[in-house]
Amino acid sequence: MPHISIISSSVRNDRKSHSVSLYFQKYLTVNNLATAEIIDLKKCSFPIFEDLLKDQINPSESVLEFAKKVKTSDGIIIVTPEYNGGYPASLKNAIDLLEDEWKHKPIGIASVSSGPFGGTQALVSLQFTLWKMKAWTIPAVFSVPEVENAYAQNGDATDQSATDKLAAIFIKELLWCIEADMEVLKPI
């Protein structure tokens, strides 16, 4: 069974996107699709980016743990809010810390916003950054408009049936990419 890490990227006090991270953790676990853990950037307390992890003399324990989790995950779901047309600095900071850990990593992007467009501007910007890091972003996306009305704080979807249908398409694509990636990496 694959292991998927879910990066909850907002560090704001009244964040709404974290409920989507909780939803995906429940969805993957309840449907027995993967083991899942949330990497909560709010709990990481990373220093402001100064250098790649591999070039740091004394990296913090949270940075080392983050790198290990990204490296050992079979796939990643990044849940990001849209702030002023982009994704949060906390996420950019975390992405820039690593290099080899992102290479060819299957990544699904879930973007959220309080408005009607579901964070699509942040999604495009984040996708470009991940491409530059040589990550494998899946073609399926999971956009959540008006997130505050779509999920409870515990991750339960307001419209569970419709949300599960969208998640099924998104997760199926991520799992296909994970399986394809594992096949490529299998020793001959």
Architecture overview:
- This protein is α/β, with parallel strands linked by helices.
- It has a single domain, classed as Flavodoxin domain (Rossmann fold, 3-Layer(aba) Sandwich).
- Helices cover 43% and strands 19% of the residues.
- The protein has seven helices and five strands.
- It has helices at 18-30, 41-44, 61-72, 89-97, 120-132, 147-150, 160-185, and strands spanning 3-8, 35-40, 75-81, 106-112, 136-144.
- A five-stranded parallel sheet has the order 2-1-3-4-5, sandwiched between helices.
- α4 links the parallel β3 and β4 (106-112).
- The longest helix has 26 residues, at 160-185.
- The two termini are 21 Å apart.
- The model has no long low-confidence stretch (mean pLDDT 91).
Per-chain topology:
Blueprint: E1 3-8, H1 18-30, E2 35-40, H2 41-44, H3 61-72, E3 75-81, H4 89-97, E4 106-112, H5 120-132, E5 136-144, H6 147-150, H7 160-185
Parallel strand pairs: 1-2, 1-3, 3-4, 4-5
